[in-house]
Amino acid sequence: MNIFISNKLFCALALLVVCAMACKYGSSSPTNTYKAFFDAQKKKDVAATKKTLSKSSIEMMEKAAKEQNKTLDQALKEGLESPAAKSLNMPPTRNEKIEGANATLEVQDEDSKKWETMYFVKEDGDWKIALDKTVQEMLKNLGK
User: Fold this and answer.
1) What is the pLDDT of residues 77-128, one digit of tens each?
2) How far apart are CA 67 and CA 61, in angstroms?
3) Which of 13, 9, 11 is nearest to 21 (CA)?
4) DSSP secondary structure string for all residues of 42-109
5) Could you give the CA distance from residue 48 to residue 57 in angstroms, rounded to a whole number?
6) Distance (Å, rounded) from C-alpha 52 to C-alpha 108?
7) For the whole prediction, is pTM greater than 0.85?
8) Residue 114, strand partner residues
9) Sheet holding 93-99: strands in order across?
10) At 118, phi and psi to the nearest 5?
11) Distance (Å, whole) CA 92 – CA 113
């Protein structure tokens, strides 16, 4: 009977560990981060939007906000309330590619229907949107 209890306890602990690891390591993906970003924008939730952005993206945006004599939160709030943030439907995504601590995801532009590449970085175990890199790559492509 003790062996039965030990096996049952072992199985329960093993299941608990697997679930904990799945929550810690399996819940974050570039696609899930993009969905969280889109949902936060839709709700006009500045704090939740910032949680999806990389540290370097936050720094870039803080610099831009400072140049406009605004805080990052003020600039984000204005951006979330602008007509450009009008879409209620999440755009289609495809081709998530993960290479180490970097990733890309293609997102379809609602108006042009073109596929744009978004860049992500893994920070503190979670995928974050690298808007700074996304903007750099878009500017590079405009020059071509």
Assistant:
1) 888 777 665 666 788 999 999 999 999 999 998 888 999 999 999 999 999 9
2) 10
3) 13
4) HTT-HHHHHHTB-HHHHHHHHHHHHHTT--HHHHHHHHHHSGGG---SPPPEEEEEEETTEEEEEEE-
5) 14
6) 19
7) no
8) none
9) 93-99, 102-108, 115-123, 126-129
10) -105, 145
11) 10
Helix 72-81 and helix 55-67: axis angle, to 10°?
90
Annotation: CATH topology of 28-143: Nuclear Transport Factor 2; Chain: A, (3.10.450)
Residues in the chain: 144
- Residue 88 makes CB contacts below 8 A (sequence gap 6+) with 42
Q: What is the largest CA-CA distance in the chain?
A: 74
Dump pLDDT digits (tens) for 34-82: 999 989 988 889 999 999 999 999 999 999 999 999 999 998 888 877 7
Give the whole-angstrom CA distance, residue 137 versus residue 14: 44
**Alpha-carbon torsion 139, 67, 124, 115, what sign?**
negative
What does the domain layout of the chain look like in residue ranges? 28-143
CA nearest neighbour of 129 among 51, 76, 60: 51
The secondary structure of residue 32, as a DSSP letter, is H
How many Cα neighbours within 13 Å face the side chain of 74? 9
